[in-house]
Amino acid sequence: MPYPYPALTPEQKKELSDIAHRILAPGKGILAADESTGSIAKRRQSIGTENIEENRLGKHTPSALVIMENANVLAHYASVCQQNGIVPIVEPEILPDGDHDLKRCQYVTEKVLATVYKVLNDHHVYLEGTLLKLNMVTPGHACTQKYFNEEIAMATITALHHTVPPVVSGVTFLSGG
């Protein structure tokens, strides 16, 4: 259920859109400051789950429930950011762990992005005042099939065209570091 935040004024919308475009200007960008593996291990430990691959990967992951819950968290975050004059960087993370092929990653990426944008709309997030940050559509690290860069690029572009509304200010990619 969407959070009952007041609607943005036209001035707030213009400011958010302008900021999003300035972030994407030549010579500008986004600094990645992700959580360390140690921090993630502590989080898992706090809920009694060992930080091992078997607890993170499966043939049917991510589940529809996990996708929806993460989309709701991203939408709540985006709403709060915008109410405070901050351009949210919406970052649905799809991990490259596992042996999935390029087609599976494209399918999951499209499923995740479609859900995220539906939920952002449900929460009345002003899409023109957002940025999307995601990974390229790639096969899993343990996938034995090799793909050409052009295939990866095409899978990524296709997933974006199928799911990201044209009004979104910009798409940025994870640094892969």
From TrEMBL:
GO BP term (any one): glycolytic process
Name by which UniProt lists this protein: fructose-bisphosphate aldolase
Family, per entry: Belongs to the class I fructose-bisphosphate aldolase family.
GO molecular function: fructose-bisphosphate aldolase activity
Listed Gene3D superfamilies: Aldolase class I
Source species taxonomy: Eukaryota, Metazoa, Chordata, Craniata, Vertebrata
Database matches in InterPro entries: Aldolase_TIM (IPR013785), FBA_I (IPR000741)
Positions in coiled-coil regions: none
EC number(s) stated in the UniProt entry for this protein: 4.1.2.13
Keywords, comma-separated and alphabetical: Glycolysis, Lyase
Organism in which the protein naturally occurs: Myodes glareolus
Class of enzymatic activity (EC top level): lyase
Top-level taxon of origin: Eukaryota
UniProt keyword Lyase present: yes
The UniProt record lists the keyword Metal-binding: no
Metabolic or biological pathway, per its Swiss-Prot or TrEMBL entry: Carbohydrate degradation; glycolysis; D-glyceraldehyde 3-phosphate and glycerone phosphate from D-glucose: step 4/4
